[in-house]
User: What shape does this take?
Amino acid sequence: MSLSDKSAVIEDAVAQIADGATVMVGGFGVPGTPFSLIAELVRQGQKNLTIIKNDANEMGMGIDHLLANGQVSRLITTHIGLNGRAIEMMNEGVLAVEFCAQGILVERVRAGGAGLIGILTDIGEGTELAEGKSVVTVDGKSCLIEPALRADVALLHANSADPFGNLCFAATARNFNPLMAMAASCVIAETETLLPLGGVGADQVHVPGPFVDHVVPLAQLSEEYAVVRR
Assistant: This one.
């Protein structure tokens, strides 16, 4: 049985993101963030995006370029404290920001990938994070209902991959990437190294190929994208 070759040109892969799409973006600060895919999304200019990411990166980096380009209408995240532009846009009402405790964000994404409607938690009860959320009682304990998160597209950064889309991440760069791969309808992964089929050892596969739709080898990109990655 032959396996699909999912190697893709970055322009074609990112062009599948439509205006108004919900996009999950892997990464914790710098590690695991798909900077080249973000740069191409900035270049193409899709608008009115909802971005789901742990953070808004720092100014002049990653997600900040999407904000500066006016492409993001909503951000679901754990914090924006390192990005003054995001804070300013939120305070001016230009950017809607939904804050989640980091563990809750992870669980909402995991629930989306597992096909669940949501999760129950007592975290945030009695705080601003609980405003507008439904509450249920389980064994006499009040719990917030946190809806699962899914996306139209997930953008990931892998250390190595094969043409079928088996992905391997380097150390802490794994972070949100595997869960987001399960919670999006279309998964686009950039990879530092594209290995031949079978080149990613079975014990090194952190995301199996069936979850991945497109693999963009960074080594084939122009110097413009290499600069973005530094």
Summary: The chain has a mean pLDDT of 95. The helical segments are 10-14, 35-44, 63-68, 84-91, 102-114, 177-182, 223-229. Residues 102-114 form the longest helix (13 residues). The longest strand covers residues 151-161.
